[in-house]
Amino acid sequence: MKALAFSLLFLFSLQAENLRVYQYTGVETHHTDRNGKREKIHVEREIDPDCLNIEISNEMMWEGSYANPAVPKACKKMFVTSVGQIQPMQLSPDIETYGEMEVMKFIKEMKKRDDMLLIDTRMEEWYHYRTIPGAINISHLDISKADVFPKAFRKALKTMGVTQKNGTYDFSKAKTIVLFCNGAWCGQSPDMIKHLIKLGYPPQKIKWYRGGMHDWLTLSMTSTRGQ
Prior knowledge:
Organism: Sulfurovum riftiae
Radius of gyration: 20 Å
Protein name: Rhodanese domain-containing protein
Shape: globular
Mean pLDDT: 84
CATH architecture of the largest domain: 3-Layer(aba) Sandwich
Domain Rhodanese: 112-225
Pfam families: Rhodanese
């Protein structure tokens, strides 16, 4: 089990790092327009220098609207687009990446079962500000910083159905979990997944909602205040 966990962790890290390099370098390609003109284009994340040092808070992230003036105000949404690091589509061969439909199906099934958890991995302040209905809050730091927050670490594992005895973790009753954070540019849930795999958490019981709150709210999905 330990060898498998470290192999998966290695694959996870290698794949993520190989893809993450595009965050800074971008890629070159050629595009032919409808008139047949072929041009070389550098595909990258375009961020205005003025956006690099803005303060990031709940109000800065989620409030505000914009669109063509003719569009009704209720139909408009605007989000910060220049933060974080873009994450790969798949973190590990054995970890499913979820979209909104899969999350909704999971929420529906979760109502009838006690071995499934939808987990918001952000800090408590962000969870209480707005989250996906049905989600509980387990901060990524509770897992990745176990030495700093040992009590929170033990509580988090217990919540996920993991027990510990004599320094050994028992994952036989580990729950199937869906983890998410702020968006496809948020590294908090991937970081928590990486540490869970290192502990030995069964990867087939880990699902990742890559789009997180950014995609959820962009698509006008129902949200709630964390309890």
